[in-house]
Fold this sequence. Notes:
Blueprint: H1 2-7, E1 13-16, H2 22-27, E2 30-34, H3 40-45, E3 48-50, H4 57-96, H5 126-154, H6 158-180, H7 196-215, H8 217-220, H9 227-238, H10 240-247, H11 257-262
Parallel strand pairs: 1-2, 2-3
Helix pairs in contact: 4-5, 4-6, 5-6, 5-10, 6-7, 6-9, 6-10
Amino acid sequence: MVQCLKRKGHVVAVTGDGTNDAPALKEADIGLSMGIQGTEVAKQSSDIVILDDDIASVSTVLMWGRCVYNNIQKFIQFQLTVNVAALVINFIAAVSAGALALATERPTDELMNKPPVGRVEPLITNVMWRNLFAQSLYQIIILLTFQFRGKMIFNVNERVKNTIIFNTFVFCQVFNEFNSRKLEQRNIFRGIHTNRLFLGIIGMTIILQVVMVEFLKNFADTEKLNGVQWGICIAIAALSWPIGWIVKLIPVPDKPFLSYIRH
């Protein structure tokens, strides 16, 4: 049965405690044996030993496994957004004349409502592509506008313009970190108070950015910004929140986007 399910592309988990369960435990993608009642052969053949023999512990294992997978997806979506925007901006800026952290999330009950991820399912899902393309496109449009029209828009010199671009880019990533917390849910602030590490990283990023712009101008090649300029940078970056909310209303097909390209 295990081999049949695997041939059909399913990810198979098997629980057992006896010697006769050893072949199935070894053949399965994930074998779980009982630590108290299980035989030594079963334990050796399994991947995970349930020490308390409580089958309910399996749900905890599933929850943490899905949490790790989900957090990896969040990180990739956020990092790809940063990279796409940064690469395009840096390339065009260099041709025409002349980045930060993500939180760790604890597992939630909602993860258990999702179907298991199949063996051939892409890590970067259609939902992730939709989210990162929207955020990347917004950042590219804004930052390119500043690159070519920034001096005229803000009536500033080249150095201040570049500082505004840099500051806006960093704060776009800060605000987009909140968007990346939830791949599909529109309430990106749900449960945020329970993740002090996330809030600490955000706070440290903002502090370091202020220090870099205001006090390390020789080291970072920046220029001090006035209150209005700071407000513009933050306000533009904050628009990524409503954009993220609206984008999540757009449905995506079940078939992976990349499969259309391959065919």
